[in-house]
Specification:
By secondary structure, the protein is mainly α. It contains three helices and two strands. The protein has helices at about 1-25, 35-40, 50-75, and strands at about 40-45, 45. Strands 1-2 form a two-stranded antiparallel sheet. α1 (about 1-25) packs across α3 (about 50-75). The longest helix has 27 residues, at about 50-75.
């Protein structure tokens, strides 16, 4: 149960951190300059391609943090 909570909290923090950082680095375009790919994956003002990439990056970061902490605890 402790591992699950650690992973869930780490994933949430990394997801919101990556999405915030993505918004700072790549501010959203207005609708006139959006590419056709962005228009195809945007529904209700949410770009789901960005959300998918943030989830993948958060999973990778969570895995790295989890196994780093786990290996340090075992020593």
């Amino acid at each position: 149960m402790k591992n699950f909570l650690f992973v869930a909290i780490t994933f949430a923090i990394s997801f919101f951190g990556i999405s915030w950082l993505g918004g700072v680095i790549f501010p959203s375009n207005d609708e006139t300059s959006a590419s056709s790919l962005q228009a195809a994956v945007t529904f209700g003002g949410v770009n789901y391609l960005n959300v998918f990439m943030y989830i993948i990056l958060a999973c990778i970061l969570t895995t790295i943090v989890f196994f780093t902490v786990k290996s340090r605890r075992s020593h």
